[in-house]
# Entry
Amino acid sequence: MRYIIFSLLALNFVYLFYNLFAQESEPGVGSPPESELEVSTIQLLGENTDQDARLRQMARAIENPVLVPESQEPNCSALGPFVSVSKAQAALERIESMNYLVTLLAVDQLTGEHDFRVLIPPAASLEEAFRMLRELQSQGIDSYVISKGEEALGISLGVFLVESAARSVQEKLKKNGYQTLITQIARLEREYWIFSIQDSDLEIEDEILGLLQNEYPEIEQAQQMCL
# Structure
């Protein structure tokens, strides 16, 4: 009987020793080693950094479009047109990975057509412009302060496809005591193109161009304006 009791006590000591020391030195079940966690963290940080850079590059292209003058003849080679900035950015990154020095630009071209804007002429100050804006909006008149260009601090009361619609709105506002102007806004067609930074012409090898055209059938290496 005593041997049984001593045996049980010995087993309890062994079990206690195992819980206190042995498990501390073993990694938890299902937990990756510390080195794997570090690699995963670095990968995630790298992916976030790449995504941030990608978004900044697309935003830069959208916010800084290039307007092609009607008088300028296209005489430099570029790759496009891409219908969306995201597709153009994806193609740009593939081309850059092949050691081409390239950049992405939003290119606006005049269509020869116009829209018609009804506006209250620019105010003398920002405070005056917003005072008028509050007055208009309190009457349920859809409007906003123009922030850029020759009409900055003017108040837009709508942009219309046809002049007759703009004239109709102008007459209604006149009856309410508001003197307005109608101005023309040139319609633009936007495309995205990839240009060479190094040379005036972007020359992509036929094999690479073919691979890109398989994914983006609408693009070609064509003449565009020079940077």
Q: What stands out?
A: Residues 77 and 201 are 4 Å apart (CA to CA). The chain has six helices and seven strands. The chain has two domains: 48-111+189-224, 112-187. Residues 34-63 form the longest helix (30 residues).
